[in-house]
Design brief:
2 copies of one chain form a homodimer. Chain A is mainly α. A 3-stranded antiparallel β-sheet of chain A has the order 1-3-2. In chain A, α2 crosses α4 and α5 packs antiparallel against α6. Chains A and B meet through α1, α5 and α6 of A and α1, α5 and α6 of B.
Chain lengths: 168, 168
Amino acid sequence: MKYNEAKDKFIQTWGTLGSSWGISRTMAQVHALLLISPDPLSAEEIMEDLKISRGNANMTIRDLIDWGLVYKELRAGERKEYFKAEKDIWKVAKQIIKERRKREIEPVLGVLEELKQMEGNKTDKKHKALVDAVTNIEGVVEKADFALERAIKLDENALVGALFKLFK
Amino acid sequence: MKYNEAKDKFIQTWGTLGSSWGISRTMAQVHALLLISPDPLSAEEIMEDLKISRGNANMTIRDLIDWGLVYKELRAGERKEYFKAEKDIWKVAKQIIKERRKREIEPVLGVLEELKQMEGNKTDKKHKALVDAVTNIEGVVEKADFALERAIKLDENALVGALFKLFK
DNA sequence: TTTTATTTTCAATTTATTTTGAAAGTTCAG
DNA sequence: CTGAACTTTCAAAATAAATTGAAAATAAAA
């Protein structure tokens, strides 16, 4: 496989993965393109490379910036804007999880809290089943939060360990 | 809030969450309905409750069964099939992760392996950036796998601990 | 075997999402 | 100011995804 085929395959694979996880295919593709670009790209270059319209490129880049995955870079004496992606995939993963939690999970947790306050006979089978499901879901969110924290700590410790080895 | 409002809100909230994670809104709603049903439901009941067609109900239920989230129940002397959901949300979460890994992540890992074999000058900036991104992604998948394993073990240990306390 | 209850399939339709592109907006140099 | 270089917006169009419903298939009962 030549570089260009590999590049296209990477972009298309990332796009498919994104779209199966509820991220627009184009957004994932722009992200993929920036991930493998050694240098920042302009909107023009992104449009041309992925064959998308200016409007689409603009909106997609804005979304990626809002998600904290892409940075804008201005060059002295140039009006055009350039964009580069965060290349550390572990940081990217943490950032995506953080954003998805905030945007998609937290509003649900709010609703679940309300639901638990529902009036009515707490010993009714249906009433109880709903409260049980809600409580159970909240518990799993806690477990997931804890697992993430542990994974982050483990990574930080590994980093400290590696640095320590270097300087010992 | 009355039970029926709470029920509807739960179903609609779960549907919205599912659809933002790339699961069809209806599939998530059927799942939600079964999660809070104390007793198994027939296709008829699901259709009526969620106001969906027979075809849609049938396909959605089949998908949920394929995902390992819903079980079919046959009753002696009755032709109709009934469906019930796995109620333990931690099991549900593990099952969803397992399925998504198999269906969506593993094929990507296969492609990434191929991409690393790409021919060409390994010192070329663009070539190197692609290989770096791929390697980096593979590393994060490993971290995620490990974090999940640790979370599962932690949960199992907590269970053993609780049982031990009971019988000590 | 025939009838009846039930499930499954899938082409056609509907609905939701994404994309385009041209006009409006912005910003800065001259 | 004015115009050139660029970015942003958003209604309309295109595309993709979900849904329907009726016909076909299946399977138990008569």
